[in-house]
Amino acid sequence: MIRAAETADEPRIRACAKEAYSRYVSVIGRKPAPMNADYASLIEAGHVHVAVDPDNNLLGFVVFYEDHGNVMLENVAVFPDAAGRGVGKKLIRFCETEARQRAARAVRLYTNEKMTENLSIYPRLGYVETGRHSEDGFDRVYFEKPLS
């Protein structure tokens, strides 16, 4: 099940981000941006949704928000012990469904160019690379999925 994140979810969301992204610290040379995000503020703003199992254990989360007629998929992360079960894809599909309901033109996202598996995952989900830029000290690859 996917539901809006609640304040009480924040410690598990931070733990999920840490576990999901820690393997990239040595590759990137610093913590990826999601490891430093202010999840309390993002939850309060209604930008975070969580995937939970039937016992309400958090499996992963997604952060997205409206941005100039589009939806920005800021972050998707899954606990490593829940990886490979389609949780990440369900969270991305949830974001896309919400974007359609909001009449967004597209879902946009970016990933670090050193997270090479993402560079092949997103195109398989219908995302097209739109550019590469350095931003906030990270080399990012930008993708977009039109919704029309």
Stated plainly, the CATH topology is called Aminopeptidase
Rg, please? 15 Å
Largest sheet, spatial ordering of strands: 1-2-3-4-5-7-6
Distance between the termini: 26 Å
Oligomer: single chain
- Total count of domains: 1
Structure description:
The protein has helices at 10-21, 25-28, 39-44, 87-101, 116-124; strands at 2-4, 48-52, 58-67, 70-78, 106-112, 128-135, 138-146. With 148 residues, it is of the alpha+beta class. It has a single domain (2-105), classed as Aminopeptidase, CATH 3.40.630.30. A seven-stranded mixed sheet has the order 1-2-3-4-5-7-6. β3 and β4 form a beta hairpin. The chain is globular and about 40 Å long. The mean pLDDT is 95.
Blueprint (SSEs and pairs):
Blueprint: E1 2-4, H1 10-21, H2 25-28, H3 39-44, E2 48-52, E3 58-67, E4 70-78, H4 87-101, E5 106-112, H5 116-124, E6 128-135, E7 138-146
Parallel strand pairs: 4-5
Antiparallel strand pairs: 1-2, 2-3, 3-4, 5-7, 6-7
